[in-house]
Design a protein that fits this description.
The protein is α/β, with parallel strands linked by helices. It has 9 helices and 5 strands. The longest helix has about 30 residues.
């Protein structure tokens, strides 16, 4: 009967690996699997988990075993191995002296996977002379499409800020209206710069720029205009905080840095608006 060594950690219960194993079982029902989970250092995991790397790896292995058995796969045993995938496989083959028909390696996407960055799948195939099936667990991390959708949302908020700034700068009356006008006029170039960057980034990620900003509400009193701008700034700041986390999860460090700078700029603008309202 066919027997495969499955090497996985953070993607051990991912839909992508589940699908790959299911297809193998459908092709030959008596296929057996040994699940090998490298004890990845805690600091290298996507999400913080309680316990040391060995404890976490054992927990991951047990959960994945139960998950795969739930789709009809025969997982004959699980093992926790060395943090190095190659060393983990080497130890497994020497310790148990079993013959495998191939190795299934499940990794995070390139942007987040140290295994892929180090070309581990191909190195393992060359080293152990066994066919390697590489499965990428895209669903475990932030997808490109989700990030693009979020950036489009941010873009439209920046465009709304531009429209609101132009309208409110013209509509403000009295001393407060004059002070608000000067503050909004000063911030317009920054808002335009943010919007331009976001549009460029969306295209660079392979997405489409979707321009659908809401038009500013018609307000009269300067204090109402001020409160509307404060609410708008709080919204974009909240969005940027979430987008920084998403960009970090996606693995785009340059985008994280740029968004942090934009968040700092928007926070400064919010504080200026709030001081104006006191």
């Amino acid at each position: 009967m066919p027997r495969y060594l499955v090497l996985a950690n953070q993607t051990a219960s991912s839909p992508e690996l589940t699908s790959a194993v299911r297809k193998m079982v459908e092709k030959k029902a008596d296929t057996e699997f040994v699940l090998l989970v490298p004890a990845t250092p805690v600091e290298d995991l996507l999400d913080w988990q309680d316990g040391d790397n060995e404890t976490i790896a054992k927990r991951t292995a047990q959960a994945a075993k139960e998950h795969l058995e739930g789709i009809g796969a025969k997982v004959v045993r699980t093992e926790v191995g060395d943090p190095s995938p190659i060393k983990a496989i080497e130890d497994e083959l020497q310790r148990h002296q079993e013959k495998y028909d191939g190795i299934v390696i499940s990794t995070l996407p390139l942007q987040r996977s140290r295994w892929v960055a180090l070309d581990q799948p191909r190195r393992i195939e060359r080293r152990f002379k066994l066919p390697v099936t590489h499965v990428v667990g895209h669903s475990v991390t932030m997808t490109r499409e989700e990030l693009i959708n979020g950036l489009n949302e941010d873009l439209n908020l920046e465009l709304e800020g531009l429209l609101r700034g132009v309208y409110h700068a013209a509509a403000g009356r009295g001393m407060l209206g004059h002070e608000l006008r000067e503050l909004l006029k000063k911030e317009l170039p920054s808002e335009l710069d943010h919007a331009t960057f976001l549009a460029d980034k969306i295209v660079a990620l392979g997405g489409e720029v979707r321009i659908r900003p809401s038009l500013p509400a018609e307000l009269g009193a300067a204090r109402e205009l001020l409160q509307e701008n404060i609410a708008g700034e709080r919204k974009i700041i909240s969005n940027y905080a979430k987008r920084i986390d998403q960009a970090s999860e996606f693995g785009d460090k340059g985008l994280v840095i740029r968004l942090e700078n934009m968040l700092a700029s928007e926070t400064d603008h919010l504080e200026q608006l709030e001081r104006l309202g006191r």
